[in-house]
Amino acid sequence: MKILPLNIATVLSGIAAVLTQAALPAELVEVGKIWEAAPHNAFTDLVRFRGEWFCVFREGRAHVSPDGALRVIASSDGRDWRSMALLTSTNADLRDAKITVTPEGHLMLNGAGALHQPAPMKHQSYAWFSKDGRHWTAAVPVGEPNLWLWRVTWHKGAAYGIAYDTAVDKFIRLYRSQDGRVFDTLVPKLFDEGHPNESSLVFRSDEIALCLLRRDGQPGSAQLGQSRPPYTAWEWKDLGVKIGGPHLLLLPDGRLVAAVRLYDGKVRTALAWLDPDAASLKEFLALPSGGDTSYAGLAWHEGSLWVSYYSSHEGKTSIYLAKVRL
């Protein structure tokens, strides 16, 4: 790797987070390429599991190609990586792997298949499960056809996920699952303006859920959703900036860090602070990136932020890992 309900505690934590955010710059401690075996390596996610890092991503001949497969790699130190598994399909381009740890202490990988046509549907979401990251179950179809279940977030023993319509209507739907296999509709039409699609959910200690949402229509600016239990009524604010590949992480001190692709002049993968009250997304660090890039995984470990992402700024589209001190 190349080295390059509101209470006083919540209020004080928020004040401390704001002051810290304003006073301290972020430091890119190290960054390096960790995988480039396939012609095109992209769309990452990252998790810490049983003392190891697990990074998942798509491999294929191109950004969109019928041979898309989901690669799982692991490392004890974030520098030396080895392949653990390759999940494939005979009838679909597998895309956008996301990885989480279930309440039972197993790994769950979810993604979607762009089905080879002709077929009765365009897309189907799937989940795979593993006890060790090396041996995985067969694909389990989840959600509904043509509703792309983007990312799963576990909260109090349940999995929440937002899927976006890939057919005609262009809306997002909120699901809830007790086991990661059967997803029930919680909100049938969560948002439907401006072609909403990719999203990331977090749950704060005060039980408020926040959703960072990408849009690609008119208007195409990102949205911030907010809801309280049982998460059936949502309020939305416009963030005023176009983003891609959103991911959101709640830090131990209460700050919210987002990883996004930005389009304002130079395309890049960026880290940004999200302020829900001000409805603002402020970039604080541009990672070495460009061209075909973004779709980051985020993890907090031993006082540092770890970020997986992909980029083509060095020529070949490859997987990178960055360590950032905040």
SS summary, helix count: 1
Largest sheet: 4 strands, antiparallel
Shape: globular
What separation lies between the terminal Cα atoms?
21 Å
Rg for CA atoms: 19 Å
The main sheet orders its strands as 1-24-23-22
Uncertain residue segments: 1-23
Overall pLDDT confidence: 93
Number of domains: 1
N-to-C SSE string, H for helix and E for strand:
HEEEEEEEEEEEEEEEEEEEEEEEE
Would you report the number of β strands? 24
The CATH topology comes to: Neuraminidase
By secondary-structure content and strand pairing, the structural class works out as: mainly beta
Helical content band: under 10%
Q: Please name the CATH architecture.
A: 6 Propeller
- Strand residue percentage: over 45%
CATH class, named Mainly Beta
Describe what you observe in this structure:
There is one protein chain. The protein has one domain: 6 Propeller (Neuraminidase), CATH 2.120.10. It is globular, with a radius of gyration of 19 Å. The chain is mostly beta strands. The protein contains one helix and 24 strands. The strands form six sheets. It has a four-stranded antiparallel sheet, with no helix packed on it. It has a four-stranded antiparallel sheet with strand order 2-3-4-5, with no helix packed on it. Strands 6-7-8-9 form a four-stranded antiparallel sheet, with no helix packed on it. The longest helix is centred in the first third of the chain and has 16 residues, at 8-23. The chain has one helix at 8-23; strands at residues 27-35, 40-49, 52-60, 69-75, 82-87, 92-101, 107-115, 123-130, 140-142, 147-155, 158-165, 172-177, 183-191, 196-203, 209-215, 223-227, 234-238, 243-250, 256-262, 268-275, 280-286, 294-301, 304-311, 318-325.
